[in-house]
């Protein structure tokens, strides 16, 4: 109401009318704001109405009414133009705001993708670090396989997972690790026509849908080497390639309920970690081979040590037996004499128990007493003749009986057993 009163007062004079038009128009030109368009339109309509009634009050002539009507009509037209611009201004602002909201939505979506990518990258880095540590922290290969399964299951769905190893020399595939909800763990098999063999042959990852698996199995049905007896909904496998580009085997995952549960992104994730897994397996295999070698050496050393202990025990037993037997000779009535084969009756060794007969061995060894001197004179010729015959016959041993006389004149019968050493 205050605004209309001001407009009415301004419209009383000609200069006021000019100002009334000029102010909003200048505002439109200078600001190009929607409110300026709106105020210009309202001002124009208001001025036109005031001018119309002012003219009508000044006279009743027809031309006065026509002039007032034209001014009112012109004011209305101009007002419509300004108000229409105001409408377009509002429309542009709404479109601009919608575009801004759409850009913000796209920016948010892009940010979410970046966060997901960063999270995935961090998970992959953590997985690589954990796998690298497994080669040292795992107690054995079985422990390593289980830990690898846990890590992979944190990256993709892996309730069914197996690790197959390839022996190129024997052309054998074994399955040291096998976790499967349906099929039992297979025995080692000859290299044949399965999905596993395809990956090993081509050295590339393989992603198989249910329909592809059905076609594959139908095409290969009846051939040796097929692991998959029930068609999986999705099958995915990657080669285990070492740093020297040797294909160690295959790690495969399969799902029996959800088709296409695995994607190319999942395959890329497995390929990202497969080299680390292959290296961890290779390190642990080398460790177990070394442990097996060490164990075999320890067993051989223990076995040889046991043999040596047995041999030492047996040798000690033999030595004790020899000592016992020698003691029998030394302490008993059996006298041991070693003769010179070239000079018969010349002793080289005489056992100390010769003293049983009243003689000392040193007397014979020194030559102060001759054995012929202690033989009974009735036996001496017979002894010489028998020894001559035995030597001529080149025998290895012979036996004799004769008598000796002790220093006090006591007679002893001697049984002589001679062995000739050549």
Descriptive account of the structure:
With 422 residues, the chain is α+β, with helices and mostly antiparallel strands. The protein is built from 10 helices and 10 strands. It has helices spanning 2-10, 14-31, 34-58, 62-137, 141-153, 195-202, 210-220, 264-331, 361-365, 377-393; strands spanning 161-167, 172-179, 189-190, 206-209, 234-241, 247-255, 337-339, 347-350, 397-405, 411-419. A 6-stranded antiparallel β-sheet has the order 3-2-1-6-5-4, sandwiched between helices. Strands 7-8 form a two-stranded antiparallel sheet. A hairpin with a 5-residue loop joins strand 5 (234-241) and strand 6 (247-255). Helix 4 runs parallel beside helix 8 (264-331). It is rod-shaped. The chain starts with a helix and ends with a strand. Residues 1-23, 25-34 and 224-228 have low confidence and may be disordered.
Structural class: alpha+beta
Give the terminus-to-terminus CA distance: 157 Å
Percent of sequence in beta strands:
5-15%
Mean pLDDT: 77
Order of helices and strands: HHHHHEEEHEHEEHEEHHEE
Percent helix, as a range, is 55-70%
What's the number of extended β-strand segments?
10
User: What's the alpha carbon Rg, rounded to whole Å?
Assistant: 61 Å
Shape: rod-shaped
Low-confidence segments: 1-23, 25-34, 224-228
Give a quick account of the main beta sheet: strands, pairing sense, barrel closure: 6 strands, antiparallel
Strand line-up of the largest beta sheet: 3-2-1-6-5-4
Q: Treating each run of at least 4 consecutive H or I residues as one helix, how many helices?
A: 10
């Amino acid at each position: 109401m205050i605004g209309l009163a001001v407009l009415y007062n301004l419209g009383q004079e000609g200069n006021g009318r000019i100002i009334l038009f000029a102010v909003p128009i200048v505002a439109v030109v200078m600001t190009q704001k929607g409110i300026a368009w709106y105020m210009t339109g309202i001002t124009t309509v208001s001025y036109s109405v005031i001018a119309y009634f002012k003219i009508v009050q000044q006279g009743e002539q027809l031309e006065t009414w026509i002039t007032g009507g034209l001014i009112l009509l012109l004011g209305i037209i101009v007002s419509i133009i300004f108000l229409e611009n105001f409408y377009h201004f509002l429309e542009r602002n709404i479109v601009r705001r919608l575009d801004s909201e759409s850009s913000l939505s796209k920016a948010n979506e892009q940010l979410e993708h970046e966060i997901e990518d960063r999270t995935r990258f961090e998970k992959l880095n953590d997985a690589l670090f954990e796998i690298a540590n497994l080669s040292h922290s795992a107690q054995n290969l079985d422990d390593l396989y289980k830990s690898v399964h846990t890590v992979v299951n944190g990256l993709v769905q892996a309730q069914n997972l197996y690790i197959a190893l390839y022996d190129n020399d024997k052309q054998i595939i074994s399955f040291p690790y096998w976790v499967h909800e349906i099929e039992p763990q297979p025995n080692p098999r000859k290299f044949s026509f399965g999905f596993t063999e395809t990956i090993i042959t081509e050295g590339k990852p393989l992603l198989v849908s249910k329909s592809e698996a059905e076609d594959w199995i139908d095409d290969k049905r009846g051939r040796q080497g097929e692991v998959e007896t029930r068609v999986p909904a999705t099958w995915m496998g990657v080669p285990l390639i070492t740093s020297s580009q040797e294909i160690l085997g295959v790690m495969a995952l399969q799902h029996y309920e959800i088709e296409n549960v695995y994607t190319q992104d999942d395959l890329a994730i497995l390929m990202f970690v497969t080299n680390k897994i292959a290296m961890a397996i290779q390190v642990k295999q080398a460790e177990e081979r070394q442990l097996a070698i060490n164990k075999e050496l320890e067993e051989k050393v223990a076995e040889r040590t046991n043999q040596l202990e047995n041999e030492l025990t047996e040798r000690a037993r033999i030595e004790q037996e020899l000592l016992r037997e020698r003691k029998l000779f030394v302490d008993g009535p059996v006298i041991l004499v070693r003769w010179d084969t070239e000079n018969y009756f010349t002793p080289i060794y005489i056992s100390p128990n010769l003293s049983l007969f009243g003689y000392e061995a040193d007397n014979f060894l020194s030559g102060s007493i001759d054995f012929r001197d202690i033989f009974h004179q009735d036996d001496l010729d017979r002894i010489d003749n028998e020894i001559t015959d035995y030597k001529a016959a080149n025998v290895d041993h012979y036996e004799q009986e004769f008598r000796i006389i002790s220093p006090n004149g006591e007679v002893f019968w001697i049984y002589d057993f001679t062995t000739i050493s050549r």
